[in-house]
Amino acid sequence: MPVEEDGCSNDEKTIFDSTHKRKARTTTEFISDDRVRRKISSPTATSVIRTEKESGSSQKLWWNECDGPDYPEDEFKKAFRMSKSTFELICSELNSEGDEIATFRQSVAVCIRLLATGEPFRLVSKRFGLPIPTCRESVLVVCSAIRTVLMPKYLRWPDKNSLREIKQEFEAISWIPNVVGSMSTTHIPAPPPPAASMIAYFNKKQTERDGKTSYTVTVQGVVDHNGIFTDVCIGWLGSMNDDQVLQKSSLYRRANGEFFNGVWVVGSKGYPLMDWVLVPYNRRRLTWAQHGFNEKIGEIQRVAKEAFMRLKGRWCCLQTNSEFELQDLNVVGACCVLHNICELRGDGFESDQWDLS
Predict the structure, then answer these.
(1) Per-residue H/E/C for 270-304
(2) Residues 334, 147 contacting (CB under 8 angstroms)
(3) How far apart are CA 269 and CA 265, in angstroms?
(4) Rounded Cα distance, 285 and 88, in Å
(5) CB distance 180 to 158 below 8 Å
(6) Where in the chain is the domain with CATH 3.30.420?
(7) Do 230 and 157 touch, CB atoms closer than 8 A?
(8) For 241-270, how does the pLDDT look when each residue is reduced to its tens digit (9 = 90+)?
(9) Taking Cα atoms as reference points, which of 299, 340, 324 lies closest to residue 144?
(10) Helix axes 84-94, 330-344, angle to 10 degrees
(11) What is the CATH code of the structural domain delimited by 155-344?
(12) Which helix (H) or strand (E) holds 266?
């Protein structure tokens, strides 16, 4: 049987063994030194290890504190853009299947916190002491549940009695009869789309205004006299104008079926004049009466524009290039539903504390 060569001579082995023994002896003496032993066992040396182990639990304390009965109402509202009672309502209506209450409430809190602040997932993850994939999943699942469970109840076309009240209120501010809604379209920043779709999502107007390339999706909304959304159309291409978005909406299809017989939805000059869409005069020389009419149309239009301002101001995720994919439109729909819930429950809009840009 052949013998394998070890690659060194006997003299080299002797030198290696001697060096190894001196190294081991020096290491033992180093550790035995009182100064070194004190340093290794000091709180400072172990603080990093302790911090790593406790960082998750310490971050969870933030949510536990927020969820406690003694947490100040104004601080809770600042963190989640809604009152404690509204948060309780949303949790109770979404948790119809009786999921584990503490975990479920935390998932709802993660979702609402991200929608409210627009913080990236890494910051929300750190705040709640949860992995980023868990936070992402919580947001998508809760937003989907909001659209499925809460939208049919809180974002719908008014019934006959409500329409009668809406007509009266709009007529009181404009002297224009039979107005059942104020309509406007806004744009939501979108992540850069695939190369083949870039032109479709390219928002020329916003790009020129901001001085940087902008990709968006559209949100068309109709609101009542209180700024409550009664109809939304979400997700059409940012390159489309108001007229094109309207023609793609279910609202337009319902109107063609005589859904709006004898009533008006008021829009801006970007919409076409139709037998159910009332828009301002759009020419240079106007008579005194036409100018006065445009002013009254503007007062109705202001209701929709201010509703969108509060929507974006309360849910700051709608102002930034979010980490969601273009197909995650449940997020935008959930914000519209939550807007309605907060408005209906009288959760005031804190314009002096929240971002309105």
Answers:
(1) CCCCCCCEECCCCCCCCCHHHHHHHHHHHHHHHHH
(2) yes
(3) 13
(4) 55
(5) yes
(6) 155-344
(7) yes
(8) 999 999 999 999 999 877 888 999 999 999
(9) 324
(10) 130
(11) 3.30.420
(12) strand 264-266
